[in-house]
Amino acid sequence: MDTTSLLAELRSYLTETFALVDAWFDQPVALRAYRPVDLGWTIDEVLAHIGLTNHYLLILIEKGTVKALVNTQGRDLAAELATYEFPSQKLSAIGLLHGFAWVRPDHMQPHLNQRSLPAIRQQLCDQLGQALGYLDQLPNGEGLLYQTTMSVNALGKLNVYEYVYFLAQHARRHLTQMQENAAETASNALA
Predict the structure, then answer these.
(1) pTM of the predicted protein model
(2) Is 158 helix (H, G, I), strand (E, B) or coil?
(3) Which of 181, 33, 49 is nearest to 102 (CA)?
(4) Measured between alpha carbons, how far is 6 from 2 in angstroms, rounded to an integer?
(5) What is the pLDDT of residues 166-175, one digit of tens each?
């Protein structure tokens, strides 16, 4: 595996994803506050949920980064790299809205009365920096050396790089949700 290419792709994907999410903060208040017909989340609630979920995923990514670096002692990184193939196909399903049933824990339910929108926007900006920082700490493939179980969509064990990609894919999933809200709003305006 070419870690330089993988890390460049992960950095690019993270940066692009977070920029796309950030653009939703600049949408009109009425659009962001629109509650879809299916009583799903408003765009503001989706943004809060992304920040909340990122918070918990980044805790796992941070712990994984520390443990992966510890595991460089006594593990053959070259052997791990020689046989590793990034499972982008398996992880891409996370980015598909309605692609599978996703049971969300109650603690990831968005509550807009707990944080202001500017605070959520800043949180997401900081989270991008955190995720990129963890990748910077694992420049030679060390992220392969520790895995944590991910129960969502029965993914099983993911290494640190895969968790970072999961974080970005989760945001992509919700980008689609926000686009659906915007399309429904536009459709209602034409009716």
Answers:
(1) 0.94
(2) strand
(3) 49
(4) 6
(5) 999 999 999 9
